[in-house]
Amino acid sequence: MNSKLKEVNTKLKEKYNLDVVDDIILAREKRIILFFDNSDKSKILNVVSGNLSILGLPSNESIELNILLKYFDVFNKYGEVRGIYEYKEEMLEKINNLSSELNLTVPLKINHKKFWCRFHFHPVKKNKDIYALFITDVTEYLLDEEKIFEKSHKDSLTSLFNKYTLDYHLEVKSKISNMHILYMDLDDFKNINDTYGHDVGNTYLIKFANILKLFQTYNNSFYRIGGDEFVGLIFEDKSEVLRIADRIITKTNNIHLKDIDIKLGVSIGIHSNKYLNEDILKIADQLMYRAKQSGKNIVIYE
Q: How far apart are CA 96 and CA 91, in angstroms?
């Protein structure tokens, strides 16, 4: 114990009957302090303070880092936006290639219970191979943050991704060779709002969004970018993309609301990103307008 710590500890003992280490440094209930040898492939985490039971694990004195990371939970709103596999790979790569101090918020799922934990790795000055790891349970705080994150990335009416997320996905995925953009606009939708009101219009929007969700996969995502305009990013070959578009039109035509005699249509423009420097979103939008001008409720692919 250094001289300053000894001095503070003496004062705390005399005035408050407290120990600076036990009652202040190590007293946080939802934190585990561990150390490990980063040069050792097994990276065994040894408990210094706290208890692994905080995370629903057995109260052992140690656990291998790779075993702890097997509980990594990809199914959260951050992974949904980033892409669950990319999200996990990025996080694990940072942890498995430690070379300096690292702070991460790590999602875990242990015994069917979800945890959000701050992982703070830092090398020990006297021996750079030895790392201290502070694991702090911040689940209560991050569950609220996750809800805020979702609201900022999704459309509140349809629960599809919004324009903000589309821009992000276009940036990180635009170099993937088989990406197609579907630009979709509901036909004569203004007439529905003007005739029946926005509540009915919103019902149609929700039902259309639910159709799009039927074709949503790990790779394929859909977005509401405003009003009755929607976009899909589809990573399939041309024949499958056209099949999906045709199915969207058919299912849209079959939307029915009680006491309302309307056949809802949707015009779709599709463009692939084989020329990576093109503004593919703008081109898909133009193709959608060509579909409108060519009779509506059809697909134009280019």
A: 9
Reading the block at residue 260, the tokens are 């309302």
Residues 187 and 297 sit within 8 Å (Cβ to Cβ)? yes
Contacts 24+ apart (CB under 8 A), 196-205: 196/260, 200/257, 200/260, 202/157, 203/257, 204/255, 204/257, 204/264, 205/157, 205/158
pLDDT value of position 6: 84
Contacts for 100 with CB less than 8 Å, ≥ 6 apart: 123
pLDDT beneath 50: ranges in the chain: none
Domains, the chain, with CATH or none: 3-149 (3.30.450.20), 154-301 (3.30.70.270)
Pure H helices in 174-217: 189-196, 198-213
State the sign of the Cα–Cα–Cα–Cα dihedral 80, 84, 88, 89.
Answer: negative
CA of 250: how far to CAs of 175, 180, 298, 299, in Å? 31, 20, 10, 12
Contact 300, 269 (CB under 8 A): yes
d(CA 222, CA 159): 10
